[in-house]
Aspartate aminotransferase family protein
Amino acid sequence: PLTPQPDPQAGAAVKAADRAHVFHSWSAQGLIDPLAVAGAEGAYFWDYDGNRYLDFTSGLVYTNIGYQHPKVVAAIQEQAGKLATFAPAFAVDVRSEAARLIAERTPGDLDKVFFTNGGAEAVENAIRMARLHTGRTKVLSAYRSYHGATSTAINLTGDPRRWASDTASSGVVHFWGPFAYRSPFYAADEAQECERALAHLEDTIAFEGPGTIAAIILETVPGTAGIMVPPPGYLAGVRELCDRHGIVFVLDEVMAGFGRTGAWFAADHFGVVPDLLTFAKGVNSGYVPLGGVAISGEIAATFDKRPYPGGLTYSGHPLACAAAVATIEAMEEEKVVEQAARLGEHVLGPGLRELAERHPSVGEVRGLGAFWALDLVRDRETREPLVPYNAAGEANAPMAAFAAACKKNGLWPFVNMNRTHAVPACNITEAEAKEGLAALDAALSVADEHTTG
Ligand code: PLP
C-alpha cells in the first residue's frame, strides 16, 4: 500500500467541515470525533497525520475484496462513461448480468433478483414479499440480531439499537436463537442448545398461531450481535418448521454473504435453502450502494400475474451493478472465497484461539472464514462480560482502552459492547492477518488488566 503523506492541515479542514455539516449515524452529534480519512487501499486506510491502519472492520463488514480494487474501480469508470444511469423498468445489460451472476451463486432455486440500495431495503422487501405470498402478517425474528435501520428492519432487529424506535404495531415477535456460550436455554452443550432452541421456536409458533405467521427471518450467522455460528441441525430444523406450517424462511445474508464465511453464502455451510435470501455489502464490496433479495421460484410465481407493489428509483443502478459484476468476477479470478476459507482455517481461527489461551480477557473465540468474534470477559469462569451485557450507551472504559491500544498498534478494531470482531477484507494476505493478530495480542494485554478472574 501507499505510504501516507502527512498533511495535518488538510485533515483539520476536512474534520471542521464534517463537524459543521455532516449529521452522523447512531451518534450524539456533539460527542463524536470522527477520524479524517485521507485514503485507502487493499486492507489498509490512512489518516492525514501519517497513521496507517489495518482495517479489521472492512468498513462496516462490507469491503470483502478490500479498498480500491483496480478492476472494480475501472468497471465503475467504464460504466459511467457508457450509461451512468437508467430507470429500473428497462432491461439493461449490466443489470441483467449482475442478476445472472448472483442467481448462479445463491443456493437452490433462488433465481430471481430484486435489487435495492442496501441491506435494510432488502429486508423490507423480503418481508413484504413474504406477507403478500402468504396473506399473513406476523414475522418471527431472533433476539441478538441486526436487520437494518429502516422501519420494518429495525423492528425485526433484536439488539439494543432497536429500543429507541420500536413500534408496538410492527407485527414482529422475537424469539431466542441458539448461542451455546451464553445459552438462553441453560443447555450443557451445542447439541442440547440446538434441540432446546428448536423446541422453543416450535412453542413460539404454536402459541402465536402458525396460520398467522408470514415469515421467520434469521441471519444465517448472526453478525453484528456476535458472530454466533449456529449449531449443526438448527437451520435445517427451522427449515422443517417453516415447511410444516407454510411459513416463508428468510435468511439475511447481508453481512455473511459473498465470501465472508469462506463460502459464497453462509447457508452453503449448512445445506439449507431459504425461500428468500437478502444480500448487500459484499455483493460489490460496497463501492456503490447495492443490495437485494434473491427469490425462490415459488414466491416469484406469486407475482407472475399480480403486480409486486414495491420499487425503488435506483433499483439495479447501472454503476452499482457494474461494480457487482466486476467484484464477482474478481472474486472468481482471485479465488477470494477460497482465500477466506483458508484464512479462517489456518490463520485467523488458530491465531485467535492461541491468543485466547494466553489472555484471560478472552472468554470465547467463535467464527469462520474472515468472520470472527472475541467475547471479552471479566472472569472466564462466570463469563461475566467485560462490560454489562446491555451496556448500550453506557461508558465502556475497558473496551475503549482496548480499542485505543489496537489503534496505537496500527489496527482499526470493530468493537461492540464486550466484543471485538476480526472481520478484515476476505482477501488479506497471511502476513497481513498475522500483523492484525499481533496488534490484537498487544491490545488484549490492556483488556487483561480489567479482568478479575
Ligand atoms: N442485515 C444484516 C444482517 C446486516 O448486518 C445489516 C447491516 O449491517 C443490514 C441488514 C442492514 O444493511 P444496510 O445498513 O445496508 O441497510
User: Anything to note?
Assistant: Residues 67 and 446 are 30 Å apart (CA to CA). The chain has a mean pLDDT of 95.
